[in-house]
Amino acid sequence: MNAKASHYLQKFSIYIVLVVLFIACSFISPYFLQSNNLINVARQLSVGILIAYGEMLLIISGFLDLSVGSVLALSGVLSVSVYKSTQSFTAAIAVALAVAVGCNLVNALFVANFKVPAFIATLGMQQVARGLALYYTGGQNILQLGNFVKIGQGAVGPIPVPVIIVICISVVIWYIVNNTRYGRGLYAIGGSRSAAEASGINTKKSIYKSYIINGILIGIAGMIFMARNNSGLPNGAVGYEMTGLTAAIVGGTSFTGGIGTVSGTIAGAFIIGFLENVMQALCLSAFDTLHAALPFFSSLALLLSLPLALADAARHKVAGFPKAWHNGLPLAAAFLTVDETV
């Protein structure tokens, strides 16, 4: 395999997996290609994609957020509560964003200022936010949201409102990542925080920006989630942080930092969404879905990436584990790594 072919296989392997999976799902489930089902998949993915964007930005810079599901639930129930009291979308949106951003500012404070590992800081916020959501609602769901449901169930022509929201946000995130100083700085921080600081990047400021953007995305996702369910669920979105992390990493975002793309994250989210949809169509539980999906995707990605990894390893010295991510092999053959210094 020549160098050019290897480069393209590296770059587009995740999209090949997505296409193969789409074709496979169309054969596995007779309902998969029906327009109503595809629209439903798009609605379901709207929350997951927004969460995945936030995780992507954090992971690229070497951090993460394990409080996503709990903060989403807290911001969502407070938002619907305010809407039921005021009948004002503006107030509901303001509350959702303020709560989610506020929680993420606390995360950023501990991570950036007190040097607490992001894993520990956000895990603590996960428990606090969930507890506050349950305390505020008394453990009861908030029912009958009225016109609030339009955010998650409405449509403009044939296009669901959540899909429109996600498309608009995707454009903004893509621009931020690819065309701003902050976005380019994320990759530098993820590659080497000390080197980024030496080059003049304000890493503390970048951490705060990443968590603020993550909070905005979670606030919007919380409103869509509650609207889709037509109720404020204090116990809702449990484990959604893992959905976001999985979508980002499956899409090629390096868990060691410095690597990640918006398009790859979208592809990763669709892979997870397609798998969940077809498993539900086959009447499998969420537990079965998880255990069926991960081996399937891992095996498929490995088969697609292994020839490339073997070809590169034959031409270069095989190095240690972590750098496999930095050579663009999304979720596959991580034990085969090219040492570019040779």
Secondary-structure-derived class: mainly alpha
Helix content: over 70%
- The total of beta strands comes to 4
Oligomer: single chain
Q: What's the end-to-end separation, in Å? A: 20 Å
Rg, rounded, reads 20 Å
What's the total helix number? 14
Unreliable residue runs: 304-342
Please tell me what the overall shape is. Answer: globular
Helix/strand order, N-terminal first: HHHHHEHEEHHHHEHHHH
Structure overview:
The chain is mainly α and 342 residues long. It contains 14 helices and four strands. The longest helix is centred in the C-terminal third of the chain and has 30 residues, at 286-315. The chain is globular.
Keywords:
342 residues; mainly alpha; two-stranded antiparallel ribbon; 14 helices; disordered C terminus
Brief summary:
Helices cover 73% and strands 2% of the residues. It is built from 14 helices and four strands.
In terms of topology, how is this protein built?
Layout lengths: L2 H26 L6 H26 L7 H19 L2 H25 L4 H20 L4 E2 L6 H4 L1 E2 L2 E2 H19 L1 H11 L1 H6 L4 H27 L1 E2 L7 H11 L11 H20 L4 H30 L7 H4 L16
Antiparallel strand pairs: 1-4, 2-3
